Structures
1.
Amino acid sequence: MRRGINGEGFAALLPVLEDDQAAVPELLRNLPTGPASPFAGLSGTHFARLVLLPPFGGLPALLFFAAEFDAFVGGFLETLCTAMPSQIEEIFQRCHRYPGTAAPPEFTRWMLAHRVRPGFTVIGNPGVSADEVERCLLLRQQIIDFALETRHADAAELHRRWQRQWP
């Protein structure tokens, strides 16, 4: 993926095959979340969400997919095919006219054909890459852990441990 900050993200509404509507909720429930999520392994991904929208007003059930990431949209979508093909197959094969991951450009065209523009982004740290956010969160946790471990230390011990932790 090309690096840089993407300010537009991606969202799509994908029609679910009628015969697969009942299987999608369980599939989504069983997807790992947090650091174990298949999307968490994609460098530069701020977040990704999948939500099943039930049939409404004559529309079929729709799988809503949204993601915020540090790449151009086409590159991100193609990376889904190459970095996590089995998970992408498992999720999106239940959608109408799903082309598969074997040809990433076809998958990208399919996703773009279902794209919706939400009109806003939810990146909590605009202008900061996902890798930078992750590094800051790790540093924050290290400082919290240090504070808890040294809460009863006197000034000399606190100073000694600080120097050892961050020379």
2.
Amino acid sequence: MSAVFGRHRRLFAILAWALVVSAAPAAADTVKVNVDSARLLKLPAKVATIVIGNPLIADATLQNGGILVITGKGYGATNLLALDRGGRVIMNKTVQVVGPKPDDLIVVYKGTKRETWSCAQECQPRNTLGDDQKYFSGSLGQTTARNGAASSGAAPAPSSGPAPR
């Protein structure tokens, strides 16, 4: 009689464990990436379409060989779906975008205003979400003007953005 109850007890324990494992979200289903950084992800075979739930949080680019490049655009979480040619979901992951790596990063607070600087060898302004609007816009304006000048071959126009200190 105890042998029968022993078998049922083991079977019950196995079923309970399987239920807990299937109900708990798997850590592997979340891909973490830093804002303004990229991460590579190997896709399953037969992927035809990639869908990002919120492109303000993350972007994805499909490369040859089933490699996906995920770029963190803004803080937060969104989902990533991989579909086959028939439109069936063959992969569903959460993309969690977190703050920049703290290496060589300095954050300056001026009252309620924040500025972020990258100080690898010499400190330079770094556009980071959450920085003061005037600081962010000025720094971004300089970057945009410089990139435009590099594309056209013209000298960049002067900007009133923040100067390195």
3.
Amino acid sequence: MISEEDKKIHINFIFRKQQHSYYSVERVFADVKKKLSSKIIQKDLYLPYFSRGIFDRIRNIQYCRKYSKQINHITGDVNYLASFLPPESTVLTILDCVYQFNTSGFKRWFIWFFWYYLPVRMCKHVTAISEFSKQETVKITGVDPSKIKVIYVALPEGFEPHYKVFNSECPVILHVGNSPNKNLNNLILALNGINCELWVVGSLTDENILKLKDNKVRYQNYIGLNDAELIDLYRECDIVSFISLYEGFGMPVIEGQAIGRPVITSNKGSLPEVAGEAALVITEPEMPEAIAEGIRKIISNSNFREHLIAEGFENVKRFDCRKLAAQYEEIYTQCTFR
């Protein structure tokens, strides 16, 4: 007779070396892990070295090899580890393929082979956080699409409806993130002549600050926020901007929708898939004029705002944490050992 203890499944969640940043791959699984059933015994493994250079990556591989006789879930960013662990007991999650498109020459081939082609082909259990990321992975690796299961990112805890009277005279626009793909400079150009205040989460560059001053955009900059502080910004803003040029998922879209804010986003990457019919989607996000037109529409049209908010509440139901945790748990039960 199998005891209750024998029915338990031990999972190692393998994360990159910890970084002091709110916007990290660790958040993809933070809330899902809380909703896994009691039969899943969890352990978090943080790599001892940053994924920089050959030797530190070899050290990370050696570290993970110590756990090769256990079930391991590689949570993203360090995909290369999957090629050195038993395929039947390893789960690999693909976040996006941005590394492949942001490099060139030998480095691009290296990333393609060790981050995508080899891990996806060798690992038996592969997930992607959006249909877009899945199709990108299929396109660059040639793997059978049926091998990759799409499991969305769960809406984090604390993002709940919070009513606020819209400030149509001087709305606060919240823009989350400032990596090159976040398209902040085009948003700044779009706000020239629009009476508003821009709140940017993420370190501003000298170029950003110069553009803000040249375009006479009032702004606040927020760095190193904790969860509660970020949620407060969503509650106090009037519009959420996430007009990124490339995303594997796009958390700010559903976070804004869950709070009850109209969201403006782009048609790039996974964003239309994640936003559904519940956001204003800019089809030319490289054009400041197109962004400005969308923002003016949200500010001036109260019926349109209310429509976006209502649809947003419906859309976020797709990202229920318990449902997504159950999908991962099903995969864990399929893991076996040689």
